[in-house]
Amino acid sequence: MRTMWKGSIQFGLVYIPIKLYTATENKDVRLRMLHKDCMSPINYARTCSKCGKAVGNEDIIKGYEYAPDQFVPISEQEMNELQEDVDKHIEIINFVKLSEIDPIYYEKSYFIGPDSGNGLRAFSLLKQAIQDSDRIGIANIIIRSKQHLAAIRSFENGMLLETLYYPDEVRSMNEVPGLGDLSVNNAPKEMDIANQLIDQLTTEFKPDQYKDNYRLKLEKLIEDKVAGMPTERKKGKAPQQNVVDLLSALEASVKGVKQKPRRKTAARSKKTV
C-alpha cells in the first residue's frame, strides 16, 4: 500500500509519527475515447483559448477569474506561504461524539499507520484512548496544498482519518425546491403500513452482500468481447403494475416483500399531530 502523506499527529505535547494511506479506491471501469475509423485513442492537446497555440507545462501558471475573462495570477510559492504549518503534522483540536457528526460532512477516508518503531507506543496509546473514550478527534490537516478539517477515530486494529467538509461547503437544505409544499399531517394508516414495510426490509448491515451489478456486467461484457464470444442481449422487463394510489402502493409493497421471521423491536411511540 503506497504512502500518500507523511507527518505526525499532535496530541497535547506528544507528537506521533504517522503515515496516511488511501482507504478506498474507485472501481469504475474506464473506457477510452477512440477514433471510429481506425480504433485508435483520441489525444487532447492543451491550447490557448485566445491565440490557439499549444502550451507546454512550463508555460502554464494558475490564476483566479475575479471577473469575466479577467484573471489574477497566483504562484505556487504564494500559496505555500499561506500555509501556517510548515511542518506536516495533524493537531487534534478537540474530541466529540461520533454521533454528533452528520454523514453529509464526510469527504474521504484514509488509514493511519505508524511511521517508525519509536512512535509505536504513542500510536497504540492514542488509538486505545480514543476507543475507550468513545470519542473521535477533530483536527486540521493540509493535503496537497489544501487545508481540511478531519475526524480521527479508532478503526479495527488501527485508526482512520476522514476529511470533512467545512460548514460553508455544505449547501443549505432550504435551497431545495418544493420542500415547503411537504405535508406535515401524514395519514395514520399510511404511516403504519410504511413503518411495517421498513420493519420487513430491516436487516443487519453486511457490506459484503452489496455488489456493483452494473460494473460486474460491464466487466463480463468486456471479457466476452476480448474473447470473441457473442454477447447476450438484454431481455425486456415485465411491465410493472401501475399503482397510483399511495395506500394501495404501500399495501402491495408489503405483500411483495418476502416474509422474514419477525424481529423483536421496540414498541413505536405514536404521536398525533
Q: Describe the global form.
A: extended
- Structural class comes to alpha+beta
- The topology string of helices and strands comes to EEEEEEHEEHEEEHHH
Q: How helical, in percent, are the residues?
A: 10-25%
Gyration radius, rounded: 27 Å
Sheet with the most strands, sense and barrel status: 7 strands, mixed, barrel
**Spatial ordering of strands, largest sheet:** 1-2-8-11-10-9-7
Annotation field: number of helices: 5
Average of pLDDT: 85
Strand element count: 11
Q: First CA to last CA: what distance?
A: 55 Å
Uncertain spans: 263-273
Strand content is 25-35%
Question: What this model shows, in words?
Answer:
This protein is α+β, with helices and mostly antiparallel strands and 273 residues long. Helix content is 22%, strand content 27%. It is built from five helices and eleven strands. It has helices spanning 76-81, 120-133, 188-201, 213-226, 246-256; strands spanning 5-11, 14-22, 34-35, 40-41, 62-67, 70-74, 89-96, 106-114, 136-143, 146-155, 158-164. The strands form three sheets. It has a seven-stranded mixed barrel. The protein has a two-stranded antiparallel ribbon with strand order 3-4. β9 and β10 (146-155) form a beta hairpin. α3 runs parallel beside α5 (246-256). It is extended, with a radius of gyration of 27 Å.
